[in-house]
């Protein structure tokens, strides 16, 4: 679901570099800025980013309004995409803990926006506790010199429960995703507990895994819709993986009963 992942460049033109990884519209880098399609949700996203920055959260895009073509302008977050980093970085315990702590800071700083009259791109989910990123995953996290430095792609943000974001992060960084590279041998039980500790939650591992399965149900439906809209066969493959991974999580929960 990543829109603006700082990944390899897929094209260049006189109007900027097209950033690879965008599934919701073309994202272009021009100098130290990123330009992406705007919509009715853009004022809400820019207000969220401004609130996070004002709260002292670093490593996130700075909202810079709209350009002459009506595209949203954001500052470019320098660094490499965690999802494509060396496995030693991708699966490091420090990065995992820092990701959980960063998500907690984002959530806490978003609380003042709950109840604000804002239009979000995705529907709110109960119970509303924070403004969820809704795609807080390795492909939207940025590293420099082996350390986590920030997060990008807040376009899908909307009000929801803390666990909704935390569960998806766990799916991607513990990890439980079938496409996670070089993840064999990782102690997933220990990593999940470390992630929950870093975030600072009393949610149990079972609650997180159950929420992750529910999250994957929704992601499968969303991805199938995108596949129908775009005709992209690769999205159908992703949807099938989400379905299988959700079933695997539920089977694991069943084995623990």
From TrEMBL:
Source organism, top-level taxon: Bacteria
InterPro entries membership: Aminoglycoside_PTrfase, Kinase-like_dom_sf
Domain Aminoglycoside phosphotransferase span(s) in chain numbering: 119-189
Positions of transmembrane segments: none
Protein name: Phosphotransferase
Organism: Agromyces mediolanus
